Amino acid sequence: MEFTAAKARAEKLRKTLKYHSDLYYNQDNPEISDYEYDIMNNELKNIEAEYPELITADSPTQIVGGKASKLFEKVTHAVKMESLQDVFSVDEVTAFIEKTKADFPDAGFTVEPKIDGLSVSLEYENGVFVRGSTRGDGVVGEDVTANLMRITDIPKRIQTDASYLEVRGEVYMPHESFFACIKKQEDNGEVPFKNPRNAAAGSLRQKNSDVVAQRNLSIFIFNIQAVQGVQFSTHKQSLDYLKACSFPVVPGYVLCSSAKEVEDEIRKIGEGRGAFSFDIDGAVVKINSLAQREELGSTAKFPKWAVAFKYPPEEKETVLKDIEINVGRTGVLTPTGVFEPVILAGTTVSRATLHNQDFLDEKGLQIGDTVVLRKAGEIIPEVLRVTRHDESKGIYQLPSVCPSCGAPVYRLNDEAAVRCFNDKCPAQIVRVLIHFASRDAYGIEGLGEAIVEILVENELIHSPEDIFKLKKEDIMRLEGFQETSANNLITSIENSKKNDLSKLIFALGIRHIGAKNAAQLAQHFGTMDDLIAADEADILAIDGFGEIMSKSVKEFFSTEQNLQMIASLKELGLNMRSLAEIKDERFKGMSFVLTGTLSKFNRNEASKIIESYGGKTSSSVSKKTSVVLAGEAAGSKLTKAQSLGIRIINEDEFEEMIK
Length: 659
Known about the structure:
Blueprint: H1 3-25, H2 34-50, E1 74-76, E2 85-87, H3 90-103, E3 109-115, E4 118-125, E5 128-134, E6 140-142, H4 145-148, E7 164-172, H5 175-187, H6 196-204, H7 209-214, E8 218-228, H8 235-244, E9 254-256, H9 259-272, E10 280-287, H10 290-296, E11 306-310, E12 315-327, E13 333-344, E14 347-353, H11 357-363, E15 370-376, E16 380-388, E17 409-410, E18 419-420, H12 426-437, H13 449-457, H14 464-467, H15 472-476, H16 483-496, H17 501-507, H18 515-525, H19 528-533, H20 536-540, H21 547-556, H22 560-571, E19 591-595, H23 603-612, E20 616-618, E21 627-630, H24 636-644, E22 647-649, H25 651-658
Parallel strand pairs: 2-11, 19-20, 19-21, 21-22
Antiparallel strand pairs: 1-6, 3-9, 3-10, 4-5, 4-7, 7-8, 10-11, 12-13, 12-15, 13-14, 15-16, 17-18
Helix pairs in contact: 1-2, 3-9, 12-13, 17-18
């Protein structure tokens, strides 16, 4: 390519890559696959290699694409969190090994799966987890300690001789958790995450750490960044040590001595990736000797002692046999494609969501088309394109009436979704009742999806009120129920009436209102009557509530049918008051940060006490922090509080404050 053409192409690639890099790293909402991004990035590298004068300081080939979010405190990494040099052929891997062998004939190499998630750093002082942060741009990341604390796989204490230990890992969402997450999103009429990597990144960047706990994230540790008090000579030795310390270390790491062994291991990982319960997007080859790594060093962006082999996504043709229309809890009609079964990434694929009418139009889909399928992120089947289409058939159109109830369906101006607004729609009724009784909502033990469907099918329940009108005799008539199981269900329903108002608000299924928002509404207004009487401005005044959420709440409590339902639930004995009673407002306007290990209270208890006196808790120390409650082995938060001159108290002083 001559210089003028190369310059123009490089400028176009840089602009495109920056756009997609921002979507991937900072918005967790990619529009293209990793592989498509990597191919463009590799093309830019080749142009810059041929014409070094075209390299710019802000080129995507020279920097990591992430940046620290303004939602979290910034962390400057003591050891730069570098990205890896991607390669796309075995020949490139062989070239890397041969070049290394020329310098170090005795070099060995580890090969391990490349986990597709969000890279984080974990810091331990004398065996206690004190801080966790995202990679960000490699130099500055985000302090997400509070969220990482909610990941059960991360050990909070370890047995180690190291006075300081910093490890690097990849936070990911297991497939099982991912499927549960997107099912809940689809049932709620939300846009589901595109793949587990985005789900993990989006969850870890939530201000509410309860979201992290609910989404069951996991982590694999793959490197020691820094250590004091313990020494290692090889990478494998360090991973073995971390495993002995109870860290969940990246699985299947293998030591190889030749290019042939490395190639065989890469092929083995690739062939088995469909059986993993998590996503991988490649295999990482690293020089095993830490001394040899030190001698080789790094470029501005990559270490010279490792490469990441990227597997191309598998694509296959199949036939779209049918399109099924499902109706969600909020009335959204979602088309699902039914295909001739094909094997992709180790599993059989016969169904995939077709999202909405916009997607059908964009792809030009119709029943009978031959299409190309792949698994986005190696897990979610998606239609890439149509290869054969009967032009006489046109494009499939969603029905003009609801397939469940026959009522007309509509598309609002600001939505991609087509929606049924009939509140008597059978499909919606089932979804509404499943949500109402679910653990995260009203939490009626024993009233799961299957039981709800049986009760609806037998016309025993049609609305939330009907759940609390059920009689033991009615339930015992159903197949599979006996007196004991019927009694247990009735008892569970009766006990649930004592639930906090926040659980009822969330169970009502108000659009755009999650569990945390429901808790805020309950605590702010105190009673259901006061919430109903509130105007939109009152709701908008709640921290974190915007115009869309406030309008949605007001519309729900302005609908006569909803008001009648709430009145009925009140008559049936459901609690209509917030149990998070404010004892007094001694902590009003104060923000507390809890750090270290508390012995007299756990963090949840301490947070509830603070909130009961009108205060708030935060996960990070800032100039807005009023008080830091420091327990044993308090780390970086304590240090920062001291530097800012913030009041620091221990548990005894906290007890005095709440007497």
